[in-house]
Amino acid sequence: MSQIRQLAAIMFTDIEGYTALMQQDEKEAVVFRNRHRNTFERTTEAFNGKIIQYFGDGTLSTFKSTVEAVECAIEMQNAFLEEPKIPVRIGIHVGDIIQLKDDIIGDAVNVASRIESCAIPGSILISDKVHDQIRSHRHIESAFLDAYDLKNVDEAMPIFAISNEGLAVPNPEDVQGELKSNPLKNSKIISKKRAISLSILAFILIVGTVFSIQYFSNQNERPEDLSIAVLPFNNLSADNDAEIFRDGVTEDILTQLSKLKQLHVISRKSVMQFKNLDKPISQIAKKLRVSYILQGSIRKYDDKVRVTAQLVVAETDELIWAGQYDKTLTDIFAIQSEVSKEIVDALNLNITFDEQQSLEDISTHNIEAYKLFLRGRQEADKRTQGSIAASIKLYEAAIDLDNNYAEAYAEIANSVYLETYYSGRDAVEASKLANDYLNKAEKISIKVSRIYSVRGLIYNIEGKHELAKAAFEKAIKLAPNDLTARHQFSTFYYYTQQYEKQLEQAKIAYTLDPLSFATANSYFTALTANFKYDEAEKLMQSIEKESDGSNAFVINRSYFRLYIDKRDYKMAIVPLKKIVDEQPVFNRFLGYCYGKEGDTINCYKVINTIKSATFKRNEKNHQIAIAFAGLQETDSVLYYLDTIRNNQRTMLQRERYEFFGYLKDDPRFIDLIKAHALEVE
Fold it and tell me: In principle, which of 57, 370, 407, 501 could form an S-S bond with 15, CB 3.0–4.6 Å?
């Protein structure tokens, strides 16, 4: 007898109550069986499966791909759930089988059969081995049930239910089937690869039930880098509110974790780029440069909500912890704290008492105020005149419902100040109003980092540097992973010419927000300010590679400044030629670079272009002076600089030695510098 041993995903299906139906109505039972068989054959073929056996009321099949097996099962159940419904149970396991001529044998086959027996109509149950292979595929949702002692299986086995929309998920305590005994509580499951300590928390707090599974693998094999990305949770409901709560749960967990100094947490700005995207965990982790990924789902039904979450090692896809939370909607706020504390335990973080207390913080208990706050944040993120105005109204409405909502006061302050950019709001008036809101927020809570990062941003722009520094330091103390504070603190150090500290903060901001062009460009600026030109060039090349083309102008502007700083004028000409048509003001640098390269003809062409432009006289002559400086035509440079004597002081403030350095000992140039009330170096 020919035998072939192979690894396969094994699927059992079964029509519940088929025998009783045969006894009651044989014709209807045959119709059910035929429809079941037709659907089974069609979907199995579509997902590259192999039909092994038909039973009177069930089937056995195998798949080379575990993912395809689960996808096939989902499509089957969706078809069986159409009216008239066929009550089908499905179980899937993966393992070694021995292929005979018309059959398969092996322990894995028996396990799959036992798992299927635990299912309920409309459900798909899978083993932990199957779950390990599908959890990086975010279009497949799963929920941990429990560890069960299956008949003729030596070790208790964790079983999961596929929880995509429409599928049935058994109550873990009601699971029946071919079991030795009731579900295990606080059992230990040992395998060759890992020791799993399984803790099931079953409790009722008015709010509902929480189920949690913790995997303790060899700590030496865990990544030492404690970096994590909280991916946007999947919304498994059609309810519009569920979409808002999905974002809220994701962002609130992220905010809680951002308070932990030991943990490096990717910003919402970067992780939200993966919203509704189905990409492998390893690929996402590589782009975000993290060692751990937290992913999950939210399903809202009536006034209840189910949230599932899973923490995995990004490189190996090893499941460290998984939890399921069934709560009433009004208690959704507690989930963020519970998940955050589970992650602390799973990663064995050593956190301070203050950090532990901060994980208990809940911003509001008013569900309607929370919804308005989340909608306000969505509007503010759009960064348009209309959306900023809309965000203010939504935050105001949230505060009307809960006047102790500190986060809402902090966000409305931010939006009010943003109006100075997006709608021309008077800066003095906006600053006063924004600070009024921040003061109200601070009276409610001094533990909200957003209060101080927004305050620091305002002080920074207003040039109140010492006040800005104090605000940023307070924000970072409360939340070391506060992106706004880190990014703006870097800008503060740039303004105050503390370039090494600028680089330190810019680098942290970039690691927190690796997919943001603005944050990356700020890091690039800090690198060039510290003369790290090679690193800056590599960074800009990676930015350009990831860019969709919308930032081409800024990229080319950054390149030409880099090459001018490196004194590589030939290379600087390339990006300059790409941007002068859009922004003629950069012709001064193009002329300068042509001059430095000894290309007199093209330098004069650029000078003539500047002369024919519609700039104001002082600006035009300043540009011409820079172009002539490239040729080192001293008399022409001094002539055009002299025409702006006593005007436009800032024109020479930054550039007097960058482009006119060769004149620093010329008495005529020194006289011009003094005329502009600038210090002579």
Answer: 57
